[in-house]
Design brief:
alpha/beta; 363 residues; 22% helix; Rossmann fold
Length: 363
C-alpha cells in the first residue's frame, strides 16, 4: 500500500477514500510531496487552467524562489529528471513562480531567462490569510498545505485560520485538501483540534478514516522505502528513512529513581498530552525536574499547568512564584536541569511547552 512499482509514494490508495482532507505523513524519502505535486500538475495541464494552491505557514516560505525550488524535482531540466516534459507532451520543461502565481515554463536558450506559459496555480501564506478574503479562485480544485507539522511555533488559532482560508478559496464548492508532513513531531494542533487521536500510534502503510460532523478526513502513514541510502545513520536515520517520529537526544535521570526524595509533583497538559512533573532531590541536596508521560486521570489535588480555561485554582497557565517548590521548578527549568523518562517524552514535552502561554515560568 502507498508505493508504486518503482518504490516511491503514490496517492492512489488515499484517493480511493474520497475524503475532503487528505493527510499524508511519513519518512522523508518516499516522495510524498512529489506525488501530490505531480498529480496537481497533471490536472492543471489537462484542464488548461490554475487548479491548485500551495500553502505554507509563513510569508517568508512563499517567496518566488522558495516555491520554484519546491517544484524543482518535478521539472525536466537543469539536472532534474521530473515529469513536467512528459506531463505537458513536450510543451514545457519547468515550473516558474512569479508574483505568487505558478506557471509552466521554458528557459530561453539565448537570454537564459524563464519564459512563463500556462498559468497553473497560486501560492499563499497562511499567516497572511486576511489578505486573500476578497479574492476569487473559481478554478481551484486542490489545496496543498506543505509541512503543516512543525517543531517550531504554530500560528495562534491556526486550525481555525486554515479553515477560514479554505473557505475563501472554495466558497460553497468542495475541494480536495492535501496536508503533507514528515513524521517530525507527534504534537500538532491539527491532531488534537480535529480529533485525530490515533496518529501517534499509526503503523506504516495504513490509512485511518475520521468523520468530523459531515467532513471526511483520511490519514495515511506512508510505508518506508525498501531501498535505503547509506548516507544516513544513527538516530536521524530512523526518521529520515525509517518512518519513526523524530526525537532529540535528551537527558535521562542521572541516578536510580528510588534514590531520590520527591519534594513536589504536578502536571503539565496541552495538545492532548499530559506529563507528570516531579521535583526530586538527591543525597547531595541537588534538585532536578523529572518528567514522564501520564495516561491516567490526573489527581484533582495536584496543580495542572494548562492553557485550558478552568475556574479551578489548581489549573492555571503558569507556575506561581510565591509557592517555593514551583519557583524552584521554574529556576531549574531555565537552567535546563530537567530530565525525561525517554527521548520521545522529552521531545513531545518541549513541543507542547513551546506553544504554551506560560508553562514552566513562575509569576
Amino acid at each position: 500500500m502507498g508505493l508504486d512499482r518503482t518504490g516511491y509514494y503514490t496517492t492512489n490508495d488515499i484517493r480511493k477514500k474520497k475524503a475532503q482532507y487528505n493527510i499524508i505523513l511519513g519518512e522523508r524519502s518516499p516522495g510524498k510531496s512529489y506525488a501530490v505535486k505531480r498529480d496537481a500538475l497533471k490536472r492543471a495541464y489537462k484542464e488548461n487552467k490554475p487548479t491548485f494552491i500551495v500553502i505554507r505557514r509563513y510569508e517568508e516560505d512563499v517567496k518566488n524562489n522558495y516555491i520554484q525550488n519546491y517544484f524543482a524535482d518535478n521539472s525536466t531540466t537543469e539536472g532534474n529528471d521530473g515529469e513536467v516534459f512528459t506531463i505537458t507532451d513536450g510543451e514545457y520543461e519547468s515550473v516558474y513562480v512569479y508574483q505568487s502565481k505558478i506557471y509552466f515554463a521554458n528557459r530561453d536558450p539565448e537570454s537564459g531567462r524563464m519564459v512563463p506559459g500556462l498559468h497553473i496555480g497560486y501560492v499563499m501564506a497562511l499567516s497572511a490569510d486576511e489578505r486573500y478574503k476578497s479574492q476569487q479562485f473559481p478554478t481551484v480544485s486542490d489545496i496543498i498545505f506543505e509541512e503543516f507539522v512543525t517543531r517550531k511555533m504554530y500560528l495562534k488559532d491556526e486550525t481555525i485560520r486554515l479553515m477560514n482560508l479554505i473557505s475563501t478559496i472554495a466558497r460553497k464548492r468542495e475541494v480536495s485538501v492535501w496536508m503533507i508532513a514528515n513524521s517530525i513531531s507527534r504534537v500538532c494542533p491539527y491532531f488534537t483540534d480535529w480529533g485525530l487521536r490515533n496518529i501517534p500510534k499509526m503503523k506504516e502503510g495504513t490509512i485511518d478514516i475520521y468523520t468530523v460532523e459531515n467532513t471526511k478526513i483520511a490519514v495515511e502513514m506512508c510505508p518506508s522505502r525498501k531501498l535505503k541510502s547509506k548516507m544516513f545513520f544513527g538516530q536521524a536515520a530512523k526518521s529520515i528513512q525509517g518512518g519513526q517520529w523524530e526525537t532529540d537526544i535528551l537527558p535521562g535521570l542521572p541516578g536510580d529513581y528510588e534514590d531520590y526524595e520527591k519534594l513536589y509533583e504536578m502536571y503539565l497538559e496541552g495538545e492532548g498530552f499530559i506529563f507528570k512533573l516531579e521535583l526530586l532531590m538527591d543525597e547531595d541536596a541537588e534538585c532536578v525536574i523529572y518528567v514522564y508521560p501520564f495516561t491516567k486521570s490526573v489527581k484533582p489535588e495536584l496543580p495542572v499547568i494548562t492553557d485550558e480555561f478552568s475556574v479551578s485554582s489548581m489549573k492555571r497557565p503558569y507556575l506561581r512564584r510565591n509557592i517555593a517548590p514551583e519557583a524552584k521548578i521554574s529556576d531549574l527549568f531555565q537552567q535546563k536541569k530537567i530530565c525525561f523518562s525517554s527521548n520521545l517524552c522529552g521531545t513531545d514535552f518541549y513541543a507542547v511547552h513551546r506553544n504554551m502561554k506560560g508553562g514552566l515560568i513562575a509569576r
